[in-house]
Amino acid sequence: MNFSNNKREIMINNIGNTEVLKDICSTCIRHHGCVAHKIKNTLSNFPTPKHQLFRASDYIFHVGDKLENLYIVKSGSIKTFIINQVGEEQILNFHGPGDLLGIDALPFHKNICTAFSLETSSVCSIPIVKLEEALKQLIPPWLFEFAIDKFKQENSNTYMLGKKNANNRVATFLLKASENHRVLGCSNTEFDLSMSRDDIGNYLGLASETVSRTLTNMKKDGCVKLDRRHITIVDTQHLQMLAGS
Questions:
Q1: Which residue among 48, 113, 150, 208 has its CA within the 20 to 30 Å range from the CA of 88?
Q2: Which residue, 69, 92, 240, is CA-closest to 167?
Q3: What mean pLDDT is predicted for residues 211-239?
Q4: pLDDT for 41-67, tens place per residue?
Q5: Using CA atoms, how far apart are residues 186 and 174, in angstroms rounded to an integer?
């Protein structure tokens, strides 16, 4: 299968200046939690990450590709997915600023899913060869904790799909999106969803029509306000009740 992979790259990996890296990181919301920044602080000779810009509908990597980089999302949103046994797309997760892509592929040395940009997104890439060299020098505990946390997030959809009905699943999804925005220092009651209803339905194991109908019912109940992809959470407690949390 052929994929188009239009990349617009901003090459900064040859700068070799720690101050420049700090300037780049200072504009990132998740600066202090960034893997690249932590490694750079741990090992002064670690190379400056490469900053790449992807347009909407660009692919960051494909399943089966040789694992060459880990990617930290700097801005925008990216979905990861696989093609299931019947040839249908199954979304694994949606990723935003601060999230790390590719770490689940470390044991296999090749990517085990495909990453697709939902909107204009920028990432910082860490060369896997350099990372492995760094890990041989020092394996800090925070890296293991970070990896475990990301694996839990990647597999959290299993729990969501086990919920009883559409209200549970959609409400849980909205609460998760709300919490992600809160962590980023943004409004957790009013935000845009970059993914389509089809993608949300795929992720939740629901038909897109069911997602739309459930959101409309939540709007009628005064739980949320809707303006296309713009969501306003009006009644958080009601949403939590629907989620069963």
A1: 150
A2: 240
A3: 93
A4: 766 667 777 889 999 999 999 999 999
A5: 15
